[in-house]
Design goal:
Elements (H helix, E strand, L loop, with lengths): L1 H19 L6 E4 L14 H10 L3 E8 L5 E3 L4 E2 L2 E2 L5 H4 L13 H9 L4 E6 L5 H17 L6 E5 L2 H10 L4 E4 L6 H7 L3 E5 H6 L2 H9 L2 E5 L4 H9 L4 E4 L2 H9 L4
Parallel strand pairs: 1-2, 1-11, 2-6, 6-7, 7-8, 8-9, 9-10, 10-11
Antiparallel strand pairs: 2-3, 4-5
The chain binds magnesium ion.
Pfam families: GDPD
GO molecular function, one term: phosphoric diester hydrolase activity
Protein name: Glycerophosphodiester phosphodiesterase
């Protein structure tokens, strides 16, 4: 009898404890992979591996389409004086990143991703024309599907033509807009699954966080590199924080008080 009572009380305490434990809801995305670590570089295959090793939610990376239709992973428009989108791959293929890796093709990057678990946050950069943006989006989706990575890939872009093509081709995928000028209602109407805005946009419109939740949209902010700001965003209830300091960010969101 007494044992039953003790069990009952312990069970009750457990329930109360679970209810009071602050549950972290904010997840961390390594911006351009985890690159501020030994042997790594922005958008390198090593940065993808390191993001996976530290166990963050996702690795964000940037993709351009060359003049002869090869998708490559790089942030800037130019690499060592060559414009990626107006160059043929042959002109780019031997160029090296800061860590000594050669410029990764999307294919080589994704092949490595197939052996890892980190989520892929695929940013398609803007291209010269609406049609070129759509072509680049179609080629991107085709490769993701060929690699069997469609369930592990979220798409983001500043370019609306690219985003609309992702939404059309991948109705089950997450597609978020980066540019900041569209409100949650407009995004929902267009078929987006979320927003991925500069943190100042959500500081100006804190009500968008609740609005997104009500509409079933996700919220993501970039690029949040100061501990106080990471805490502020986590306390606002933002779903994802994209950062260049993923290990520190994870510590902060794991202890968030919200
Ligand atoms: Mg990016």
């Amino acid at each position: 009898m007494r044992q039953g009572l003790v069990s009952f009380l312990l069970f009750g305490l457990l329930l109360v404890g679970m209810a009071c434990t602050p549950e972290s809801k904010t997840r961390v995305i390594a911006h351009r992979g985890y690159w501020q670590t030994e042997g790594s570089a922005q958008n390198s295959i090593r940065s993808l591996e390191r993001a996976d090793e530290i166990g963050v939610y996702g690795a964000e990376f940037d993709v351009h389409y060359t003049a002869d239709n090869v998708l490559v992973v790089y942030h800037d428009n130019d690499i060592q004086g060559k414009n990626i989108q107006t160059s043929n791959y042959e002109e780019l293929k031997d160029l090296r990143l800061n860590n000594g890796e050669t410029l990764p093709t999307l294919e080589s990057y994704l092949k490595r991703a197939c052996d890892l678990e980190v989520r892929l946050v695929f940013e398609l950069k803007s291209h010269a024309t609406p049609e070129r943006n759509r072509e680049a989006a179609r080629a991107s989706v085709e490769m993701i599907k060929r690699m069997g990575l469609e369930k592990r890939t979220d798409y983001i872009s500043f370019n609306l033509d690219a985003c609309k093509e992702f939404i059309r081709l991948c109705p089950d995928a997450s597609v978020a807009y980066l540019n900041g000028e569209l409100d949650p209602d407009a995004l929902k109407e267009m078929g987006f699954t979320g927003l991925d805005y500069h943190y100042n946009v959500l500081r100006e419109h804190p009500e968008w966080v609740e609005k997104c939740k009500a509409l079933g949209l996700t919220t993501n902010v970039w690029t949040v590199n100061e501990p106080e700001l990471i805490q502020e965003m986590a306390d606002m209830g933002i779903d994802f924080i994209t950062t260049d300091i993923p290990e520190e960010a994870r510590e902060i969101v794991n202890t968030q008080t919200r």
